[in-house]
Amino acid sequence: MSVETQKETLGFQTEVKQLLNLMIHSLYSNKEIFLRELISNASDATDKLRFEALAKPELLEGGAALKIRISFDKEAKTVTLEDNGIGMSREDAITHLGTIAKSGTADFLQHLSGDQKKDSHLIGQFGVGFYSAFIVADKVDVFSRRAGLAASEGVHWASKGEGEFEIATVDKAERGTRIVLHLKKGEEEFADGWRLRNIIKKYSDHIALPIELPKEQHGEDKPAPSETETEWETVNRASALWTRPRAEVKDEEYQEFYKHVAHDFDNPLTWSHNKVEGKLEYTSLLYVPGRAPFDLYQRDASKGLKLYVQRVFIMDQADEFLPLYLRFIKGVVDSNDLSLNISREILQKDPVIDSMKSALTKRVLDMLEKLAKNDPEQYQAFWKNFGQVLKEGPAEDFANKEKIAGLLRFASTTSSDAGEQSVALADYIGRMKEGQDKIYYLSGESYAQVKNSPHLEVFRKKGIEVLLLTDRIDEWLMSYLTEFDGKHFVDVARGDLDLGKLDSEEDKQAQEEVAKAKEGLAERLKAALGEQVAQVRVSHRLTDSPAILAIGEQDLGLQMRQILEASGQKVPESKPIFEFNPSHPLIEKLDAEPDEERFADLSHILFDQAALAAGDSLKDPAAYVQRLNKLLVELSV
């Protein structure tokens, strides 16, 4: 071994110490994942070299074929993994192996459940896969040299996973990284060719470059002591999975490839593998994950597909190929029409990208439609994870608005499970009453609040189904989703409710007569409530409650007002419409009240109660309590 210089001992970042402690003492349920993670990192290193070499061919240093080699020594109890990818400089090693960005370790530690198997699944997703080596090793040596640096600028990183690491400068003739794992007592099973081959076939067969092991000799693995004497054999397919015909790829292979590109341990819900030929030529392999990533609702988090051009890796997280509301989709796209030196700036302006984005978006939506049709239970699992993100679609993607609407799911007044969003719009339309030509909905803070809202009373009486919208995004969604399948959406809390043909001519005539008869009471209430209300009128919505507050046709609903207020934005001023039920006993007593002061107190109590029933907060709670107490004292006398 060459002489080490500039040797120093450094401490790990606090989060890394926590992570190492977890790896060493807790995650034993699936030890073999260490090899999957190290191979995945090595594959990424070769991808990065290919990409950087497009602009700097000299980084290839003579053009040696890219590969990963894994060897072992039973006597020394070591496993060695070597790649000839981009490699690391001394600074890279300190940065990448000694510290982790908060988005990695800290979030990883936050998401731990205490279940070993589940927690081990998180390792790759949070970009902390290297440290899985300490599950089986009590010491790890890393020898690396970044492509383009001199042989004398190699680096040796070493740690026993106990809070610190050593780093030194060494000579390293070849670019790339060599990792030597010194196996713990009891982990000698991994210093075995048959065991390593099986792990590679299980997890890494899809890796698109050769993974080589020493060739078996006379039925036994006898790795030779030197590189020149060892015969190597490729143990994986070493071809890009997406380039193979679909008929030749097994489901298990698709699933393992997903785990590689998504850094997920669970299987995807579904996938679509497609080759396009003609005006555009590209191949796509798209996956719908089985669960949401931790940063799904961070709209600026990393997202997008792996981009290849003519099978050459170009970039991770190319987000120009799918709209933001489909940011949960994982996979690869490999184009023959783009330039090898394409950049993010060019991607944003290239008309080819727009065509590909349109086609890939339709493919994802078709994939989801197929899942919803063929496996409603699995689609419901998808909806629980990604439904709120999909609801961003109608605002972002006008061309596919109808298609996205068909994929949305809502709770409704006919839902059997409390609050479960399982009603498709097509199913709602299929259950519509004879003469019904609108889709009715009500939005609010919670399922309990909207399900028991007085606004639904007339709909219950007539047996009309109403969609119940309780997600924070719903009111914003409905401002863009105005109709589906030719049927307009109607907010049952907004404007003057018109049930159209669902009300008979006799009903309409009776409503007009009552409204005319109660004009005096409406004027008296308006005078009492003053500037608190925009209008007072007889309600056609109520059957059991005395009063409700309706929203003006052009006014913001309560949800949107609360969102704007919470974000510090100015909320347009608006006043509710006070509707009363003329046949309710309280309203009848109010109408007969001769004392104007008492009439005003009762009117304000009814107004405040209506506001509470709508999920709003009172502007003056103290005044409400004072009036209510005054009324209670009067009743008790």
Short description:
It holds the Pfam family HSP90. This protein is 37% helix and 20% strand.
Structural notes for this entry:
The structure is a single chain. This protein is an alpha+beta fold and 637 residues long. It folds into 4 domains: 5-239, Histidine kinase-like ATPase, C-terminal domain (Heat Shock Protein 90), CATH 3.30.565; 243-379, Ribosomal Protein S5, domain 2 (2-Layer Sandwich); 409-493, Rossmann fold; 505-636, Four Helix Bundle (Hemerythrin (Met), subunit A). It contains 22 helices and 25 strands. Strands 1-6-5-4-7-3-2-8-11 form a 9-stranded mixed sheet, covered by helices on one side. A 6-stranded mixed sheet has the order 18-17-20-19-22-21. A 5-stranded mixed sheet has the order 12-13-16-14-15, sandwiched between helices. Strand 14 and strand 15 (312-318) form a beta hairpin. Helix 9 (351-374) packs across helix 10 (376-390), helix 9 runs parallel beside helix 12 (401-407) and helix 21 (596-613) crosses helix 22.
